[in-house]
Amino acid sequence: MNFSLGSDHAGFKYKEAIKTHILSLGHKIEDCGSFSEESVDYADFGHRVARNVESRKSDFGIVLCGSGNGINMTVNKHQGIRGALCWLPELAALARQHNDANVLALPARFIELETAMACIDAFINASFEGGRHALRIEKIPHGGSI
Fold it and tell me: Is cis: bond before 67, omega within 30 of 0?
């Protein structure tokens, strides 16, 4: 699988560790930045990851910022992106299984690196279940039926 990774300064150290982990699993990485702990704007890097996933240059994205919220909001502005903010492996698995999430957002300042890695593994190893979940996902970009 091909992954795009992006973070702001708060997520930089985790991003670097995640990059090593994903490569060790045999996957490919495009590092969309940031490239240091110097203060930057999360949106710049979230948009890069989202564009790669949107265009199918990458199968999935992983994004990080301090709380995970800002960068997750950014990726979700892109049509066809389903970003999920997760802080437990169970949430990451469900994001794939029930929501067909294609971008995993992690809150770097609120979880341990071990937990972040467990979330990534759960996300990678889960598959979309389809069925009733597919019907629900189809309603996301169109406002639903109510």
Answer: no
Residue from 21, 27, 98, 133 carrying the catalytic annotation: 98
Give the model confidence (pLDDT) of 51-68 as tens digits. Answer: 999 999 999 999 999 999
- Model pTM? 0.95
Question: Can 98 be counted among the known catalytic residues?
Answer: yes
pLDDT band of 27, cuts 50, 70, 90: very high
Domains, the chain, in order of start with CATH, read: 2-142 (3.40.1400.10)
Cα dihedral 44, 46, 49, 51, rounded to 10, equals -70
Q: Is 21 a catalytic residue?
A: no
The catalytic position among 32, 65, 86, 119 is 65
